[in-house]
C-alpha cells in the first residue's frame, strides 16, 4: 500500500519454496483451461460448425457461464403470464392499505370478480385498526469491496460493464496511486494495515464530499475493527481501499471519479455505526376484509449518512416500488382498536412477470457462487472459493462471450443470442455446462494453493474429463445439433385462410407459406436483427399479437454506434418501425437514421 511497506517487503523476501503451492495451483488452472478449452473447442467446431457456423468456442469457465444465461433465456421464453388483481384501500385518517388474505398473499388469481366484490364490500364502510406493530431494526455497514462486489455496484449504479470498472480501478491503482491493488478476492484488511487507517481517512478529510464522514472516523478513540480486520481472510491481497496519499480529484477521469467515490465512501462507512429504522405494520379490518399498511422511518442514519442525499434517493426509489404495491411510508398515529373509514377502494389488474435477464451485476454474483442464488453477504463470502473463475478473470469471461456472439448487451441486460442458445443445446446435459462442477474445480484449485489439495490427482481428473468430453461431442446425434426453431402461432396475414404458421429460421420469424424467391408466399416476416439488437421470440410474438412491444426496449444502436431505446411497432405494410419514448428527443433524431435500414434488413 505504501512505499515503506514495499521496502519492508523487499527486506523480508521469502524463499521461493514457500510459494510452491501457489505455483502448483496457477499451473493447474492454466493447464486445465487449455486442456478442456482447446480439446472441447476443436471437437465442437468439427462436429457442430455446419449448424452453429464458424468456430464453436468452449471453455472451463465460459461455457457454464453461458449455460446460466441460456437457462434464464429459456425460462423467459417458456414463461406464460398469469393475470392477477390487487385491491387498494384509502382510509380516513389518510393512509392507504393493500388487501391481503390474512396470511401474506396480496394477489388474487383466477377470479377478477373477487376483487370487484371486495371493493364494493368495503368502500364507504367503517372498520377498525386490528393491529399496530412497531419494530426497531438495525442494518450494519456492508463489508469493504473486493473486485467482484465493486464491479457489481458500479454496474448497478452507473451501468458500467465489469471490464469498464476494472479499467478505471486499474488506472486509479497504477497511474494515480489512489487505491490499493484492485484484483483482489478479499473484503478484509490485514492487521499490519491498522496504523494506516486513520492516516488514510485524513487524506479524504480535505475533500468536501467526504469531510464530515472522515472527521467522524478521525475523532474515534478506537476504530471498530472486528468486521474489518481479519488476517485469516486475507490471502494474496486485502480489500480495496484508498491509499494514504493526497488525492488530486481534478486529475481523475469521470469513470475514475465514480469508482473512487464508491471505494472512498465504503471505506469510511465501514467504521460508522449501524443504521437504525422503525418499521410499522398496520392491519385494518373492514367488513371481515384485511388491509395491510407498511411504513419505514429512519431513526439514525448511521453508516448510511456517509452516502448523504444519494442514499436518500435510493430509499425513495425503493419506496416507489413499494408504493406500486400500495404500501407507502406515510402512516398517521394509529392505535389498536381505533375506528377508521374506508373512503375509497379500487382494484388493479396486473400480470406475473418472467424472471429477469442477468445484468452484469447479477451475473457476477451468480459466477461468484457457482449459480446459487445467495443474497446473504456472509454466506456469499463463504462460497467464494467455489465460484466460476476468479475476480480478475470474470470481466474478461463476459467480454469473451460477447465477442463470440454468444450473448449481447440489451441495455443493462445480458441476452443469449440464437448462436449461444444453439451451443448449449448441442451440449445440453454435458458436465461442461454445469456451474457446480466448475465451481468444485475452483474449490480444489484453492485447496492446492493452500497446501491441502493434490495437483497430480486434479490434473488426472481434468485429462480424463477432456477425453470424455471429446468422445461425447463426437458421438452427438445429428438431430441434437439442429437449431431450436420456435413456432409463434398462426400467420396474422394469411393464417386464417391457409392455416400457415410463423416459424423461426436462421435469420427471421417468417410465414411457412414461403418456399423460395420464386414462391415467396404471403411475405410476412420479422427479421431477427433490428438496429444491432436480437429480436427474441417473446418480442416477435408481441409484435404479431399486439402490433407493438409492451415495453420500451434497450440495446439498439444507430448507424454511428450510439445506443438508443424505443418500442418496436409492426406496421400494416409489414415494416418494423421505432416508437420513441417522450424523453430524449436527440436520441430519437439519431435513431431515425437507423429505422428504415433496420426494418428492411
What would you note in describing this structure?
There is one protein chain. The protein has about 600 residues and is α+β, with helices and mostly antiparallel strands. It folds into 4 domains: about 190 residues, Orthogonal Bundle (Topoisomerase I, domain 2); about 140 residues, Topoisomerase I, domain 3 (Distorted Sandwich); about 120 residues, Topoisomerase I, domain 4; about 110 residues, no CATH class. Helices cover about 40% and strands about 20% of the residues. The chain has a 6-stranded antiparallel β-barrel with strand order 1-2-6-5-4-7. It has a 4-stranded antiparallel beta sheet with strand order 10-11-12-13, covered by helices on one side. The chain has a 3-stranded antiparallel beta sheet with strand order 16-17-18, with helices on one face. β8 and β9 form a beta hairpin. α5 packs across α6 and α5 runs antiparallel to α11. The C terminus is likely disordered.
Amino acid at each position: 500500500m505504501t512505499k515503506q511497506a514495499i521496502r519492508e517487503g523487499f527486506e523480508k523476501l521469502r524463499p521461493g519454496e514457500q510459494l510452491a503451492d501457489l505455483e502448483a495451483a496457477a499451473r493447474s488452472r492454466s493447464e486445465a483451461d487449455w486442456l478442456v478449452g482447446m480439446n472441447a473447442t476443436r471437437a465442437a467446431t468439427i462436429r457442430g460448425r455446419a449448424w452453429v457456423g464458424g468456430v464453436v468456442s468452449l471453455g472451463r469457465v465460459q461455457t457454464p457461464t453461458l449455460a446460466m444465461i441460456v437457462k434464464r433465456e429459456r425460462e423467459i421464453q417458456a414463461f406464460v403470464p398469469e393475470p392477477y388483481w390487487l385491491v387498494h384501500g384509502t382510509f380516513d385518517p389518510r393512509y392507504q392499505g393493500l388487501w391481503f388474505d390474512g396470511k401474506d398473499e396480496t394477489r388474487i388469481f383466477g377470479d377478477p370478480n373477487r376483487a370487484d366484490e371486495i371493493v364494493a364490500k368495503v368502500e364507504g364502510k367503517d372498520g377498525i385498526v386490528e393491529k399496530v406493530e412497531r419494530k426497531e431494526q438495525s442494518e450494519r455497514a456492508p463489508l469493504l469491496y473486493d473486485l467482484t462486489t465493486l464491479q457489481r455496484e458500479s454496474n448497478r449504479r452507473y451501468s458500467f460493464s465489469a471490464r469498464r470498472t476494472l479499467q478505471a480501478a486499474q488506472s486509479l491503482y497504477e497511474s494515480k496511486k489512489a487505491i490499493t491493488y484492485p484484483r483482489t478476492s478479499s473484503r478484509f484488511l490485514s492487521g499490519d494495515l491498522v496504523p494506516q487507517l486513520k492516516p488514510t481517512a485524513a487524506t479524504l478529510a480535505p475533500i468536501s464530499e467526504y469531510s464530515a464522514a472522515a472527521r467522524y472516523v478521525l475523532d474515534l478513540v478506537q476504530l471498530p475493527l472486528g468486521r474489518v480486520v481479519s488476517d485469516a481472510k486475507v490471502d494474496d491481497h486485502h480489500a480495496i481501499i484508498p491509499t494514504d496519499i493526497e488525492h488530486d480529484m481534478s486529475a481523475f477521469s469521470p469513470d475514475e471519479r465514480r469508482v473512487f467515490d464508491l471505494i472512498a465512501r465504503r471505506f469510511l462507512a465501514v467504521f460508522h455505526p449501524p443504521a437504525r429504522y422503525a418499521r410499522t405494520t398496520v392491519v385494518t379490518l373492514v367488513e371481515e376484509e384485511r388491509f395491510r399498511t407498511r411504513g419505514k422511518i429512519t431513526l439514525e442514519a448511521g453508516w448510511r449518512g456517509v452516502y448523504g442525499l444519494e442514499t436518500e434517493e435510493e430509499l425513495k426509489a425503493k419506496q416507489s416500488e413499494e408504493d406500486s404495491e400500495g404500501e407507502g411510508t406515510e402512516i398517521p398515529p394509529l392505535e389498536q382498536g381505533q375506528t377508521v373509514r374506508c373512503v375509497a377502494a379500487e382494484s388493479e389488474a396486473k400480470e406475473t412477470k418472467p424472471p429477469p435477464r442477468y445484468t452484469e451485476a447479477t451475473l457476477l454474483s451468480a459466477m461468484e457462487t457457482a449459480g446459487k442464488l445467495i443474497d446473504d453477504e456472509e454466506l456469499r463470502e463463504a462460497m467464494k472459493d467455489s465460484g466460476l473463475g476468479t475476480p480478475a478473470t470474470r470481466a474478461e469471461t463476459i467480454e469473451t462471450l460477447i465477442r463470440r456472439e454468444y450473448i449481447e448487451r440489451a441495455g443493462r441486460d445480458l441476452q443469449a443470442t440464437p448462436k449461444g442458445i444453439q451451443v448449449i443445446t448441442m451440449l445440453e446435459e454435458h458436465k461442461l455446462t454445469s456451474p457446480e462442477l466448475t465451481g468444485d474445480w475452483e474449490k480444489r484449485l484453492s485447496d492446492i494453493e493452500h497446501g491441502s489439495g493434490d495437483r497430480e490427482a486434479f490434473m488426472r481428473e481434468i485429462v480424463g474429463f477432456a477425453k470424455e468430453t471429446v468422445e461425447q461431442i463426437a458421438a452427438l446425434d445429428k438431430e441434437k445439433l439442429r437449431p431450436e426453431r420456435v413456432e409463434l402461432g398462426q400467420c396474422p396475414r394469411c393464417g386464417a385462410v391457409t392455416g400457415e404458421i410463423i416459424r423461426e429460421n436462421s435469420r427471421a420469424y417468417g410465414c411457412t407459406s414461403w418456399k423460395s424467391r420464386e414462391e415467396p408466399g404471403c411475405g410476412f416476416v420479422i427479421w431477427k436483427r433490428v438496429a444491432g439488437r436480437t429480436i427474441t421470440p417473446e418480442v416477435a410474438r408481441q409484435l404479431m399479437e399486439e402490433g407493438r412491444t409492451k415495453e420500451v426496449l434497450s440495446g439498439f444502436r444507430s448507424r454511428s454506434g450510439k445506443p438508443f431505446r424505443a418500442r418496436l411497432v409492426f406496421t400494416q405494410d409489414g415494416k418494423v418501425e421505432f416508437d420513441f419514448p417522450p424523453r430524449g428527443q436527440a436520441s430519437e433524431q439519431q435513431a431515425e437514421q437507423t429505422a428504415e435500414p433496420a426494418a428492411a434488413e
